[in-house]
Amino acid sequence: MFKNSIKLLCANFDKVWKLLVYQILSWAVVFALLAPFYHVISTEIVNAWNSYEIGKYFTSGTFYGINISAALSAICYGIISFVTSIFNANVWIGIYMMIIIFVVKPLFSNVGKYVVCEMTYGYMAASSKHSFTGTFLRTLNKSLPYAAMKTMYSWIFDALVLLSMFGLTAITNPLYGYAMPFLVVLVPSILLAFKETFVAGWAPAMVVFDVNVFKAFPKGMAASLRRGLRVFSNAFIIYLLAFVLSAVLGVYALIIILPIIFPLFDIFEMVMFFSSQGMRFYVDNDTILTPKKLEEVDKIDDAKFLL
Asked: What is the chain's percent helix, strand, coil content, to nearest 5?
């Protein structure tokens, strides 16, 4: 799956740029919505940034070795201080900001995800390419319900990741500092890989079977769990590579990593779904892959239900 996903990403690298432009425009809308409260938000950000001296961890652009522990602690406590200060200054501004960050922005991101899945389906099924804008407008009636449901579903796993990061900063054992660089990449990678395992087939099922968001969820989960261990391991490796490269190369490397990792996951989900369903697909303009049919990969226990 990983190899074929990389091949498809290279064959459709234009999707990286299109999704990047879309994400930039999405952030522009988010900043515009927050602009009326710019003074309050910016003041509290600067106060939290200076109070915990977060800037010194970004001077070299890298988090090396044991510094990850100190950097993560400073960032976590800085976030807590910022959110607390915003709500103390004005509760309604705090609620408004949370809605924008945890509802509006994920909605935009998930709509973009669905659009990329739809575009990838066109290439994999017929080696055809479609415009991002045209696909975006054509699929709004399906992408918006998907984005809304996916956003609410993701809150659970996102909360677990945030709590795990805050929990890692609460351990004070001196020896723990040496394990921190490993834990800070392993824990979120495992949690996010579990999340991906259960939702990897959701958008592909909507695209391929042309069903609504509620019917697509069980169909997508069945396809994903049919190769659950492979899906989990591939998702874990992708997240692990992203976190390790960010920690080793520095947070500034995210400027390169993030624009690639998002479309890679979208393509990976489509590859997983096609492979799980035994559907042939283009991996590049000259190569068509033929996965094993469902009856070749199902277990013996499942065969009794065929009659």
From this structure: 80, 0, 15
